[in-house]
Amino acid sequence: MPDRRRRGSHGQQPGYGQQPGYGGGYGPPQPGYGPPQPGYGPQPGYGPGPGPGYGGPPPQQPYGGYSSYGPDQVTDVDTSWALMAYLGQFLVGAIAPAIVYVVKKRSSRFLAFHATQALNVAVAAMIVAVPFFLLGAFVSDMFFAPWLAYVAVVMFFLVKAGQAVTRAERYTIPTFVAWPLLKLR
């Protein structure tokens, strides 16, 4: 006996849940959702289009090479780089703040401040470390404990400055830890 079931558009049987007669398509178009409910106007923030300046030429950088952001407008990129200048010292010493200082010191005043301060901390720590290591190696091990205390103080202020960076604040590390060898211009 021949199969008398209705076939879809290419001689195939209709798929699961498919209505016969529509040939494998998507079915009839669905009706709209109707008129909007009363009391619901347009959503705030979805205005007619972008504001002025959209699609225009980029703004020029102000004198001095710093970005057009004000002192209270710190970007996430700035905080990431500044944080790397401080916390990178735990991994690679003075290399991290030196890289941030050389590469990013002109991108914003916030970043220039923190990169300069982090590099001052790193250079001061290296200068302090040399005599402690020499005295500890050739004279006595008693010089090792004061050096460890100084390292602990440096680490404390690096973490404290890193916390200020995450809040987009300027935190000045005391000068006995961050000798002002490099200055902001």
From TrEMBL:
<feature type="transmembrane region" description="Helical">
    <location>
        <begin position="115"/>
        <end position="138"/>
    </location>
</feature>
<protein>
    <recommendedName>
        <fullName>DUF4870 domain-containing protein</fullName>
    </recommendedName>
</protein>
<feature type="transmembrane region" description="Helical">
    <location>
        <begin position="81"/>
        <end position="103"/>
    </location>
</feature>
<keyword id="KW-0812">Transmembrane</keyword>
<dbReference type="InterPro" id="IPR019109">
    <property type="entry name" value="MamF_MmsF"/>
</dbReference>
<feature type="region of interest" description="Disordered">
    <location>
        <begin position="1"/>
        <end position="69"/>
    </location>
</feature>
<keyword id="KW-0472">Membrane</keyword>
<feature type="transmembrane region" description="Helical">
    <location>
        <begin position="144"/>
        <end position="161"/>
    </location>
</feature>
<dbReference type="Pfam" id="PF09685">
    <property type="entry name" value="MamF_MmsF"/>
</dbReference>
<feature type="compositionally biased region" description="Pro residues">
    <location>
        <begin position="28"/>
        <end position="61"/>
    </location>
</feature>
<keyword id="KW-1133">Transmembrane helix</keyword>
<feature type="compositionally biased region" description="Gly residues">
    <location>
        <begin position="18"/>
        <end position="27"/>
    </location>
</feature>
